[in-house]
Each structure stands twice: as C-alpha cells, then as structure tokens.
From TrEMBL:
Name of the protein: Aspartic proteinase A3-like
Gene Ontology BP terms: proteolysis
PROSITE patterns: PEPTIDASE_A1
Organism annotation: Drosophila rhopaloa
Gene Ontology MF terms: aspartic-type endopeptidase activity
Protein origin, superkingdom: Eukaryota
C-alpha cells in the first residue's frame, strides 16, 4: 500500500471510530404542566431577567375568578414551553440535563437539596457512591432562566453515552428556588461566564481529545417527543440545507454575535436596522428583544398585548396566514414560520417574541433554533447557521 492509501484508511478509521457523537435530545411540551401557562410566562419572564442580570419585576395577576389577584412568588418556575434535554451521567449516576449555550456551568442536585428532591422529584448525586468524586467545598451560586441555585464546587467524571470526561468541575446544588423538567444544567458557553470557576465541559472534551473537532451543533425538532440532536465534535450536513453561513462570536462569554436585522416578511417593518447585539441561547425557549422592537414585530403580525399576562396573544385560527419573520445574519437571511413562532397552549395562542424591559440586545432562543441548525465552533469562536432539515 502506498502512503496515500494508508493516510486515507487512517482518516476513515478516525471517522468511523466516531469522535463525532450524536446525542439524542428529548423534548417535553408544556402540556403536562398543571400551572396555568400564562402564570408560567410571568415566572419565565422574571427568571430570564435574572439570568441576564436584570432585576425581577414584581407582578400581580388579577384573575376574573380571584379578585384578590395572585402574587407570583419566585418559588415555582417551570421549564416553560419547550425544552430540550438528554441523559448525562455524573460519577456514573444518571441525570436528565438541559443543554444551555446561555451559561457555562455543569451542576446536579446534591442530597442536601430539599426542594430538588422533595418538591421537584429530581434525582440527586450520591457522593458515597462515586469513587472519582472530589470537593474542597468552595461555595457558588448561579441565576438562570429557570431559577437560581446555590451549592458547592466539586469534580467528578461525566459521561455522555460512550464519551467520558474525567475530572469535570461540577456544581453540587444544596439550594434551589425552582423546579424544572430536568435535574441539572449542562452549560455550553465560555469560561468567563462560569460561576463555579470550572473549565467548561466542552473545553474539557477538547483537552481530553474526546471530540474530532472543537465543534458542537444543535438540530432541534418540533412537534414530537423526539427533540432532535446535539452533535459533539462536528456537524452533520444531512441535517441542514446548503452551506453554513458563519458569523463570528463578538464576545466569548455568551455566544454573542452581530445580527443585521429582524424583519416581518412583506410588511416592510425592519428592526435592529444597521445591526445589533444578539446571543444564541439553547436554554431559552422564545426570542426575546428590546421592548419597542418586539412591540413593532408583534404589531406587524397582528398580535394583541394582553395586559393581564403581559404577553402578546394571537388568534389561533390566523396562524396559517401570518407572515414569516426574517433574521439577517452575516449577509444571509434566515426564516422562522408562524407555526414555529406562535406558541399554542390548548386554545390559547401567543407570540414567541417576548419583550424585556431594559434589554438592549436580543436573546435568540429555541423558536429560532427549531428552524435553523446552528454549529457552535468553540475554537474559531464562530457560529455556522443554515436552515434545518
Ligand atoms: C452544602 O452542603 C455541604 C454538605 O453538608 C456543606 O458543607 C456546605 O456548606 C453547604 N453549602 C451551602 C452553600 O449551603
Ligand atoms: C447524519 O444525520 C442523518 C440523518 O438523521 C443520519 O442518518 C446519519 O447517520 C448522521 N450521520 C452521522 C455521521 O451521525
Ligand atoms: C471573523 O474572524 C476571523 C478570525 O478572527 C477573521 O479572519 C474574519 O475576518 C472575521 N470575519 C468577519 C466577517 O468579521
Ligand atoms: C388575557 O387573556 C386571558 C385568557 O385568554 C383573558 O381571560 C383575559 O381577559 C385577557 N386579558 C386582556 C386584558 O385581554
């Protein structure tokens, strides 16, 4: 055999040996939640304010059935509309984790977290059952779109299917103020955002040579319990159309990029004209933006502000006739259809474009990612985007 053939064979072996790992995501819709959906929306709104460093608003809902109104405590926050998650093991113990490009820490509940265990029914970490566990008991706290958590920094092995990351810095949560569909969070943003001071999980995967390329990708799906997939170590071109369009990360903390514009197709109503800051966040369900921009978009799709719940409702029967929303990124256009951006909850339909007082940038969440495949290129600090299959 000549050298070229040998090299070719070696390449094939690496490829087949599969340092590109496809990781199935599960999806659970909000339909099984008992809390009225609009209440969750208000909780979600406040939790998101905290995740991005804004003060929560005190909100009172005046319901027809209860003239005294309901004051929302911050204690029960559901994972809201749709969330994408999968099984990950910590110290050989399985946990259901949310994959969040909007944070940088990996945490699971500890045996001390009463809320996690008793109220939320989450799984918890059993220190005595792991031989690889270590902690210096340094405290940490994090605030998320789904609530806030406090605990101690530790380390242990983390397993993604057949992938095993050794000595991953993890947060062991003692105190949580909220419940969600998942046990813990697996942060996929950059080190400067880490509150446990740990090397982020994906950096560890690269350092420990577990992935083919320093890239991970998300292919989110709608409509079924199959949430799509997260691909570790590369991309899968059969999951998107055409080439990826790359946009550079402008600040490697969150996955921050410059968005060129947002437009309601055919309505000539363009916002973020001339470009604005945006963050790609798989851990946020909706698309969130500055108040006036979101007002303009929602007006253009005929959504009505519902003051009771502080959200924009849409006539459910109008969905097929609503316009497409266009996102300009890196000189290309990406689309989101009304079937994706209108959130349907029984007979209550509302816009997936949410405003946030004080917000000066956009948070591009799952409403966008369910129609557009995104490759997160960790080393080159860029994102590749293409319409998803
Ligand atoms: C969490 O629990 C551990 C074990 O009991 C304890 O050492 C630590 O101080 C607790 N930390 C916080 C922030 O409550
Ligand atoms: C890419 O995705 C397609 C379609 O789901 C799948 O059949 C194929 O096995 C995937 N390829 C790899 C290398 O994971
Ligand atoms: C993106 O970053 C790369 C590397 O820093 C640079 O070469 C390229 O010009 C940048 N692209 C744009 C459109 O700014
Ligand atoms: C908001 O929506 C709820 C649920 O459909 C409805 O009962 C309420 O009257 C609406 N409030 C406003 C101000 O439109």
């Amino acid at each position: 055999m000549n050298l070229r053939v040998i090299i070719l064979l070696l390449c094939l072996v690496v490829f087949v040996a599969g340092k590109v790992h496809r990781f199935r995501l599960q999806r659970r819709s909000h339909r099984h939640h008992k809390v009225p959906h609009a209440h969750m929306h208000l909780q979600f709104r406040n939790a998101l304010r905290r995740k991005y460093g804004y003060t929560p608003l005190r909100t009172t809902i005046n319901q027809a059935s209860d003239s005294k109104g309901v004051v929302l405590s911050e204690t029960l926050i559901n994972s809201y509309d749709t969330n994408f998650f999968g099984e990950v093991s910590t110290g050989e113990q399985p946990f259901t984790m949310q994959f969040d490009t909007g944070s940088s820490d990996f945490w699971v509940p500890s045996s001390h977290c009463q809320v996690c265990i008793k109220k939320c029914g989450n799984k918890f970490f059993k220190e005595s059952k792991s031989k690889t566990f270590h902690t210096d008991k340094v405290p940490f706290s994090i605030t998320y779109g789904s609530g806030s958590v406090k605990g101690i920094v530790a380390s242990d092995d983390v397993g993604f299917g057949d992938l095993k990351i050794q000595n991953q810095g993890i947060g062991l949560v003692n105190i949580s103020d909220s419940c969600s569909d998942f046990d813990g969070i697996c942060g996929l943003a950059f080190q400067p955002l880490s509150m446990t001071g740990s090397t982020p999980l994906f950096q560890q995967m690269i350092d420990q040579k577990l992935v083919e390329q320093p890239i991970f990708s998300f292919h989110l799906k709608s409509g079924s319990s199959d949430g799509g997939s997260m691909i570790l170590g590369g991309s899968n071109s059969s999951l998107y159309y055409g080439p990826l369009t790359y946009t550079n990360v402008t600040e490697a903390k969150y996955w921050t990029f410059k968005m060129d514009f947002v437009e309601v197709h055919g309505k000539g109503s363009r916002r973020c004209e001339g470009g604005c800051k945006a963050i790609m966040d798989t851990g946020t369900s909706l698309i969130v933006g500055p108040v006036l921009d979101v007002l303009s978009l929602n007006n253009a799709i005929g959504a009505q502000h519902n003051a009771t719940y502080d959200l924009y409702t849409v006539d459910c029967s109008s969905i097929p006739t609503l316009p497409i929303i266009v996102f300009g990124i890196a000189g290309k256009e990406f689309y989101v259809k009304p079937q994706t951006y209108v959130i349907v909850f029984q007979d209550f339909c509302y816009s997936g474009f949410m405003d946030m007082r004080g917000l000066t940038y956009w948070i591009i969440g799952d409403v966008f990612l369910r129609e557009n495949y995104v490759e997160f290129d960790w080393a080159r600090k860029r994102m590749g985007i293409a319409p998803a299959v």
